[in-house]
Amino acid sequence: MKSPYKLITLVKMTMKNAPASVKVTNKQSNSVTFNAGVRQGDGLSTTLFILALHHGVQKIDQRGTIFHKT
Hints:
two-stranded antiparallel ribbon, alpha+beta, about 70 residues
């Protein structure tokens, strides 16, 4: 499955120069920007993880594999 160019561009735009700060004992740090990874708690992070996992699982030869849910 190939992702459309517009979707990839949109994801990159939402993640580029993302601001972040840290709050410890009610004291907020200055804001910093980062260009790698996804923000903690961002709904996009789970979506990207599922897409990557789906892509990886498709490449596994699952013939003869038995899955058990316990």
